[in-house]
Design brief:
Shape: globular
Radius of gyration: 15 Å
Oligomer: single chain
Strand order of the largest sheet: 1-3-2
Distance between the termini: 42 Å
Number of helices: 8
Strand content: 5-15%
Helix content: 55-70%
Largest sheet: 3 strands, antiparallel
Structural class: mainly alpha
Length: 139
């Protein structure tokens, strides 16, 4: 049981984490430990690290095309780094989101609902993420 718990924790953590980044993640986790998901998203994208232009582009596309496929989003984004951008939505703000992660889910599932039926991944922003991103002007 302990081994499984450790394995699940290691799977949830970002790869290639530096000591400084780990300290920052822990500090942020302490600051948001009593917040609900919407409040944690607000802190993550305003105080920890505002969305960069690529993240804004992808989030706006997903918001405007709920249920859109990865392939459609990649064509709209026009770059081959879509998976990296989606993954870094949470990776760069990991301390805000760790406690919301579900074992077995990927990190971006904290913000996105993913439908994997039909052989394609379809993305929709979770309601909390949509509301906060509207509020803070990301979408």
């Amino acid at each position: 049981m302990l081994i499984e718990a450790c394995d699940a924790e290691l799977l949830a953590r970002p790869f290639d984490i530096t000591q400084d980044k780990a300290i920052a993640f822990n500090r942020t986790a302490t600051q948001v430990h009593n917040l609900d998901l919407a409040s944690a998203i607000r802190v993550a994208f305003t105080k920890v690290q505002p969305a960069n232009l690529d993240e804004i582009d992808v989030l706006r596309w997903i918001a405007a095309n709920p249920g859109g496929t990865y392939q459609d989003a990649e064509r709209a984004h026009g770059k081959g780094d879509l998976a990296l951008i989606i993954g870094h939505l949470v990776y760069e703000r990991f301390g805000c989101f760790r406690r919301f992660m579900v074992p077995g889910d990927d990190q971006s599932s904290v913000l996105l609902q993913k439908d994997r039926t039909g052989g394609r991944v379809r993305y929709t922003l979770k309601p909390e993420a949509y509301a906060v991103f509207c509020e803070i002007g990301v979408i």
